[in-house]
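FW: tagging you since you asked about this chain on Friday. Here's the raw sequence from the shared folder, copied in full. Didn't touch anything.
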Amino acid sequence: MSVWRPSRGLVACWAGLLCLLALTVVLAYQPLGVFNLVGALVIATIKAGLVAAIFMELHRSTGLVRVFAGAGFFWLMILLWLGLMDFITRA
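HL: got it, structure written out here
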């Protein structure tokens, strides 16, 4: 019976996500004003990119799979934009 071990790429991605998590926590306690939001969004985008590329294996997939993954993220952005517009336009 053989034991399954994750590849080095998966372990490196996991370690990177943990480092980004620690950076997010540290950034949350720094008084940077509006740059707290910008920094948090940049870190979240990097985390989402790592998860999509490594854990969802989009870096090895065909072009059609990448197009549909991009369409899903585009639809998510539309939904977030509509929710933000509802929040902003309320009195």
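FW: The longest helix spans residues 63-89.
HL: agreed, and The chain is about 75% helix and 0% strand.
FW: great, closing this out.
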